Amino acid sequence: MGLLPVEPIIKTNIAKKILENKMSSPEIERLITEVINQK
Description:
flat, mainly alpha, 39 residues
């Protein structure tokens, strides 16, 4: 039941990490892949 609200939060946290850390593209791709694989 709690899956739908969690998803935008995860995406927001990734966006914050990208902005704060100014991550490189490979790191961003790895993060996104990890989130997709968690589903």
